[in-house]
């Protein structure tokens, strides 16, 4: 495989200026256990995301519940601080290239010129190391519309105070001026002056979402994060809100990050989409192309299972097996491979995959396991209560896809089975066509999505 | 509201400041009316009102004793007089103290006791709980372990111990109760703040860039305060109940016109058939506690965030 | 049973008493379900679809609810039928679970978090399928002693009192095995790969899709004639939704039961329902075969709903949103409730309640322009003709 690293992927939108660029963002939450609150593991909510949000466009971020899309949105909004990684704001095409280049070098090896450039970039554009004023500017520039319009408006404040609050905080207006501006904002989102002195509970869901949008627009931001803005609304009201969002984007030149699980909505709204699975982005590209010709099996399955008003759900052969793996110990290689219908040898099989599948498919055999002596994630000796179970376990492994990934066939020795897999690095997202990115290693090899024929050759 | 929209924009802007206030007051009035819809709450409020009147106009109802009005005047000629005898409407106790006088002036002490204790504990508990919840981490852990220690000892016994160490004095009872009651508020407000902090409107305020203090003041506290208000109302009654217990076992000055002390005084006469001292004083305590409990329950029903505004 | 229906709802009205007045949640709703058929009741939040579904099992709390009028008839053997709303509560309880069962939107809330899956299902079997359990344990149901039944009941009950089984441990064990087998079989039926393991787990250990499967197993435990599925996939991820719906469809085919879907999702209707009834503000506004209704909606509301679904080919920002919002149903005026949002509303629409009238065979629409337009002098000049409307939607 080529030597490109994950961070290079940040030049997704290299042809346009970026409102926000993310470099290798990780958000890990410690899982604590016992009385002493010992850290037992890390939930990898977001695990190495590179993303560029091109200016003036809508980027759709899709994924199922628990994939980390909301956390990622909150990282960009500054509500969650990432465990590691960089967030850059307002990079020009030129600057994006510089960031890419410099990030791949060791800071000690920088030339004098590069050192200056890096300093300039980090103090001017990197969240965390830039000046307070810049930080404040970023805050003003990046606003959020939340999913639940019932919980995103303070029930004890009047609409005037809710919508006017950003203006007050940033000392943009007060008194008469504030009222005038609030009315302007309300009219902009299809409400009126008569709504100014009411409490949130006096509004319907759609109207509340309009108030939420008005608040987000108060500071004239360049960039708005829409976190499932319509998923709590009925279809007819959703259409009103979507139309409003499009209208506002055209009027104010807004950039949107549209986070949703609804493919119909994202299809309709966004120019580019990023598909997320288990804390990572698995596919990125122009919306139409991703939908017409997905380059990651997960995108394809997601597309096909989306209910539609025309045609049958096409190609329902493609199905995800099992359930979403534990984000504390995500699978090696490509994260989808244990559930993937077209997984092959090189997808990152490890001991855990075999054990998990045994637990799910043949619990009777799984229960006879006495110990698992593992050298690392790829090599282990599994011991059973009796030779019979060990034998059927070995047969089962031999008949599964995982067998192909084995370094050598499973060694059956009395009550124990020795497994030794080829070590596979974690999958990284790479560009395989112009503007099309995928993290599926098979697609990367073939240049196209592999067919469903389970040719395990 | 529709009339507002019909006016032109300019006059509307002039008016909006006052209208915003009036809208807020209208909302409060709505809530108040809702509270008054429950007959039990109204009964509680009436009883509280009567007690307040009693406390306020005590000098007009019975002439204050000199030099200390909180010591019952002694009528040594009529010891243990039954109600109605010699102008003692509710009788006298074993030292000739008038029971009616004791109850009327005792209401002042009860009011003083519950107001000081509840106000102090409410404020102190809210501060401690808020700091713990807003800061989180180790400070939260430390504060909450202290609270746990306090909570692990029964209120009454703890207050008893403190009052006993400080010596028999009414002000010591106040101190003892204050030392005990704040933990509950700290606990409640901490839990509520942690719940409210999850709400998206807090996240929205952070995105806007508002300060931590403003978020606390505008978003967190108003939405977390309801259970505190209910608890404070209930405690207005509970404090008097426990305070009475303390003075009942002799932790107030001798002869004080405190309801608990009165009950204690009359206790010895109960077996001899002299029921009036303990009964009337006890009744006052019960009514007081009951009234605040009725109002507290009524408030809870109306202010409960789950049912509010629906 | 001349007309061959399983369930018939006639002029059902359900009111809710609130401080602000009487809410007409369901207003003169009539429909019927044939045996083995799939009907979808579609509508947006607050349209009364869930209340209608709950009324069928008489689950609407009284008060504040009130069955203001109407009948719900469930057909029984020998041309008999039972009226659910007036039947004694004991008879209704017998119907719940035995003949009609229900699955809910949020399977997490419908399962008891304190019991293992196996225990919860065992209870259902103990309650409704005693004969089967006895038979599988080698005891003939007719000849079973009271003690046998007691043991079985107790074995199935989550309380697990073993008083009787202590005396007859052999029978107890056989019965326990019979119950466990029945539960495992029911779970395996819903495509759960390792039922024995699932039986030992608690609801919070399962994913949403798995919980919904358990709910389905529970609902189908007694071979009901009608399954009411209230938004069965709304809380699930898209990749699982289709599988759950296919599972219901498969179970339906195998057992020949009827299914009533309650949903807001029109795309689900197309693939999984035979007939559809669209509800708006407490009334059914259009009903007919699912394919026809979706291909050529006749009521402006249905048409609006279809147009509002975001689609790739709709130019961005030009979704056909329905303006305004759903009217308050507190003492609603006698008019077409959709009139305030309808492009083609005429004066007459604001003074007459449109009735559900047949427009074609098996299709009905409650819209004035379809029947009495001339009589009421409704101007139909700027309204699209039927054919034209079909085209708009088919675009």
Brief overview, please?
Chain A has helices spanning 69-77, 93-103, 112-125, 132-141, 159-169, 175-188, 205-217, 235-252, 263-269, 287-292, 297-305, 351-361, 363-366, 387-399, 402-405, 441-446, and strands at 18-33, 38-54, 58-62, 84-91, 142-145, 223-227, 255-260, 272-277, 280-286, 369-374, 379-384, 411-413, 416-420, 430-433, 436-438. By secondary structure, chain A is of the alpha/beta class.
Would you mind describing this structure in some detail?
The complex is a heterotrimer of chains A (457), B (310) and C (395). Chain A is of the alpha/beta class. Chain A has 16 helices and 15 strands. In chain A, strands 5-6-7-3-8-9-15-14 form an 8-stranded mixed beta sheet, with helices on both faces. Chain A has a 4-stranded antiparallel beta sheet with strand order 10-11-13-12, with helices on one face. In chain A, strands 2-1-4 form a 3-stranded antiparallel beta sheet. Chain A is globular. Chain A starts with 17 loop residues before the first strand and ends in an 11-residue tail after the last helix. Chain B is an all-alpha fold. Chain B folds into 2 domains: 1-35; 38-307, Orthogonal Bundle (MetI-like fold), CATH 1.10.3720. In chain B, 75% of the residues lie in helices and 0% in strands. Chain B has helices spanning 2-6, 9-36, 39-56, 58-61, 99-135, 137-152, 155-166, 170-197, 200-208, 212-224, 226-248, 259-270, 276-303. In chain B, helix 5 (99-135) packs antiparallel against helix 6. The two termini of chain B are 19 Å apart. By secondary structure, chain C is an alpha/beta fold. Among the domains of chain C are: 7-109 and 220-278, 3-Layer(aba) Sandwich (Rossmann fold), CATH 3.40.50.300; 115-199, no CATH class. In chain C, the strands form 2 sheets. In chain C, strands 6-7-8-3-9-10-12-11 form an 8-stranded mixed beta sheet, sandwiched between helices. In chain C, strands 2-1-4-5 form a 4-stranded antiparallel beta sheet. In chain C, helix 4 (117-128) runs antiparallel to helix 6 (146-156). Chain C is elongated and about 80 Å long. Chain C starts with 6 loop residues before the first strand and ends with a helix. Chains in contact: A-B, A-C. At the A-C interface, helix 7, helix 8, helix 9, helix 11 and helix 12 of A face helix 11, helix 12 and helix 14 of C.
